[in-house]
Design a protein that fits this description.
By secondary structure, the protein is an alpha/beta fold. The protein is built from 13 helices and eight strands.
Length: 365
């Protein structure tokens, strides 16, 4: 039976409502610092059920030069899921859960994000640690605190694709290996559909809650002719929807998008520098080989032993190609920001087109 469960691929993630509330509370309390924790539950065929969650203890990094670095603190917190002390804490918590006979299977971890800024090396290393060593069928739950503050809950589940797991294990992120495997940045993460589940006991309790009757019962007119003419129409225009103010989250996301594009261009410039250095070294090697061949030809005429032609491997050192993993992650993050900008700008763009004639300067006659 266990073999059948492992063969069935994960198709959905089911999270208990209590777990959602605990994740939201933890991420909101630590915002803007990254919050992390581990998830427990059970694997039911192709659905991963998450029944409980626990935050990781806060471990402060040692101070550098007598003061605390905020960036170092954020990176240290983001790497908490694979920290040795937190691994011991996690195993001890799972052991205690088994003693009280509740779901105590490690099914993943969760992290907080700010405007979709979660696709980075820390997130990849954490999920790889869970999928490789703890449990292959684990997920990473990402809660975007900024998006959720607008009124719509942002909770997403991700896994690393099998192709990326293999490439990351072999550490093959060179241009040649990526071309052979046809690996793209879209193939890094697999997003699973997520649904929130309430227990039957809680659902029954919600249905038994009495609803408060309205204090005044509106009197319905007996005919259409008796409806007052000044009564507000259900489709009465709401002028507040015509506000042209730009969403502040849109400008922040656009700034993050520009930063990611700049990082992407920096990685491309480093790769172009490597290509130029490689071309220069290869030109030197070709010139040396031609010179050695000419020397051996002249030595052959004088019946002397030829010189070794592979000596260039000791004299010349080819530059090492930089890894393309950062470029892949930046490309995936740029795509994430672009989708968010598209969602934020949809409403504002429609309003701008509606009043375009008033925004454009008048034509000179």
């Amino acid at each position: 039976m266990a073999d059948l469960l492992k063969e069935a691929p994960l198709t959905a993630v089911q999270v208990e409502a209590l777990v959602v509330m605990k994740i939201i509370k933890h991420c909101s309390q630590t915002f803007p610092t990254t919050a992390t924790g581990f998830l427990v539950g059970m694997d039911a065929k192709s659905t991963l059920e998450i029944t409980n969650s626990f935050p990781f203890p806060t471990i402060e990094p040692p101070p550098t030069d007598g003061h605390h670095d905020n960036n170092a603190m954020s990176n240290h917190t983001a790497a908490a899921p694979r920290h040795k002390a937190n691994t011991i804490y996690q195993n001890e918590m799972i052991r205690k859960l088994r003693e009280v006979n509740v779901d105590a299977n490690n099914v993943g971890w969760y992290t907080s994000a700010n405007l979709g800024n979660f696709i980075n090396l820390n997130m990849i290393e954490n999920q790889y640690h869970y999928q490789k060593e703890l449990n292959e069928r684990t997920v990473a739950i990402v809660h975007d605190v900024s998006r959720s503050s607008q009124g719509s809950l942002s909770l997403r589940a991700f896994r690393l694709s099998p192709a990326f797991m293999l490439a990351y294990k072999e550490n093959k992120f060179t241009t040649e290996s990526l071309q052979k495997s046809s690996f793209r940045y879209q193939d890094i993460l697999l997003e699973l559909p997520l649904q929130i589940h309430n227990s039957h006991l809680l659902t029954s309790f919600l249905h038994t809650l009495p609803t408060r009757p309205s204090e005044t019962q509106p009197s319905m007119p007996p005919s259409l002719s008796e409806i007052p003419s000044d009564a507000p129409s259900p489709l009465h225009p709401n002028l507040t929807t015509l506000s042209l103010s730009i969403d502040p989250f849109l400008s922040q996301t656009a700034d993050l998008l520009l930063d990611s594009i700049e990082s992407h261009h920096t990685e491309l410039a480093n790769h172009q520098y490597y290509q130029r250095s490689l071309a220069r070294e290869q030109a030197k090697i070709t010139a040396w080989q031609q010179k050695r061949k000419a020397e051996n030809a002249s030595r052959a005429l004088t019946k002397q032993s030829p010189l070794p032609e592979d000596e260039w491997q000791r004299l010349f050192k080819l530059p090492t190609e930089p890894g393309r993993l950062e470029v892949l992650l930046n490309s995936r993050q740029v795509e994430q920001y672009a989708r968010q900008v598209d969602g934020f700008a949809a409403g504002v763009t429609g309003k701008m087109f509606a009043v375009r004639s008033n925004l454009l300067p008048e034509k000179m006659e």
